[in-house]
Design goal:
- The strands form 2 sheets. This protein has a 6-stranded parallel β-sheet with strand order 2-1-3-4-5-11, sandwiched between helices. Strands 7-6-8-9-10-12 form a 6-stranded mixed β-sheet, sandwiched between helices.
- The chain has 10 helices and 12 strands.
- Helix content is 47%, strand content 19%.
- The protein folds into 2 domains: 128 residues, Rossmann fold; 138 residues, 3-Layer(aba) Sandwich (Rossmann fold), CATH 3.40.50.
- Helix 7 crosses helix 8.
- One of its GO terms (cellular component) is cell envelope.
- Pfam families: Peripla_BP_4.
Length: 317
């Protein structure tokens, strides 16, 4: 009798082991599958996007997953091609910082149909229903902060704007600034030029305003690389009066100038580290079917000479 009992016990143990292996393979093993992320930013010729990507990459690597990063170099057509290439690599999540807010929509709809999650970071797209989540700085308030600081320091001002009209984040910053000064006739917008947010394009853009004979004493720039281009233009043209520059980003270069010179008045600081962390955090929530917000707005804070000592001028915040 004991022989048959032992045999039955062995059979029961084998069946139980088979069931355990099945459960492990069917349920637990799905969570250990390597996840593929694809990221494309408007340009990597900006340390801001490198800082965002570094935060994402650190978390992805710690999970044993993979991140493919692409640089379209401000070319919307190239960015569309890169997205299609990333899809062909079998990505589970697309992280996109759009070169243009609208030209990307058609391609993103195809990505969505393929069942790939889409997270838009830093600059929103024109049709925000396409994205599963949008993670941005409070860009409108960044412009408001700079305008309010300018109005506190100067009784009146003639203002030149350096813009990027095809990036909604930049448009929001400019609108925040313009709306804040609009009802006060002591502050006048006297000229504006588009420069795609690039230092090398900001210099000739401000040169163009100067060559038109337009007199200004404040330049509001959509970002810090633009502020550096504006500064180069002002020095190149040897303007005979002080010109005060505001930027947006809180980049190491601008913080250093704030700390050591009078050439920059202020910058409304973004946090690329926070943007990166929020982006990858929501990505994993999506993949693990957890609740998440479809819109995440990261606050900005004005950095001036009065509070520059609170910040590390050698890196991003």
């Amino acid at each position: 009798m004991s022989f048959y009992k032992n045999k039955a016990l062995k059979i029961t143990c084998i069946v139980s082991l088979i069931m355990i292996c099945f459960v492990y393979h069917h349920y637990l093993n799905t969570d250990t599958k390597q996840i593929k992320f694809g990221a494309t930013y408007m340009t990597m010729n900006n340390t801001f996007y490198k800082a965002v990507n570094n935060e994402i990459e650190n978390v992805v690597n710690n999970h044993g997953d993979v991140l493919y990063t692409r640089d379209p170099a401000l070319d919307p057509k190239k960015q569309n091609e890169q997205i299609k290439d990333l899809v062909s690599l079998g990505i589970d999540v697309l992280i996109i910082n759009p070169v243009e807010s609208s030209s990307i929509n058609k391609t993103l709809k195809e990505v969505k149909k393929a069942g790939i999650k889409i997270i838009v970071v830093d600059a929103p797209i024109s049709d925000d229903q396409i994205a599963d989540c949008t993670v941005v700085s409070d860009n409108y308030d960044a412009g408001v902060q700079c305008a309010k600081d300018m109005m506190q320091h100067f009784d009146h001002a003639r203002i030149a704007l350096l813009e990027h009209s095809k990036a909604l984040s930049a448009v929001d910053r400019i609108n925040g600034f313009k709306d804040t000064v609009a009802l006060n006739e002591n502050y006048q917008i006297v000229g504006s030029e588009d420069c795609l947010g690039q230092t090398e394009l900001a210099l000739p853009a401000l040169n163009k305003i100067i060559q038109q004979g337009i007199d200004f004493d404040v330049v509001f720039c959509l970002n810090d690389p633009t502020a550096l281009g504006a500064l180069a233009s002002i020095k190149e043209n040897d303007l005979g009066h002080d010109v005060f520059i505001y930027g947006v980003d809180g980049s190491p270069n601008i913080k250093k100038l704030l700390a050591e010179t009078k050439e920059i008045v202020g910058t409304s600081s973004q946090s690329p580290t926070s943007l990166g962390k929020e982006t990858i955090k929501v990505a994993y929530k999506m993949l693990h079917h957890k609740k998440y917000k479809r819109s995440i707005i990261v606050p900005t804070k004005l950095i001036t000479k009065e509070n520059i000592e609170e910040y590390d001028i050698t890196g991003w915040q």
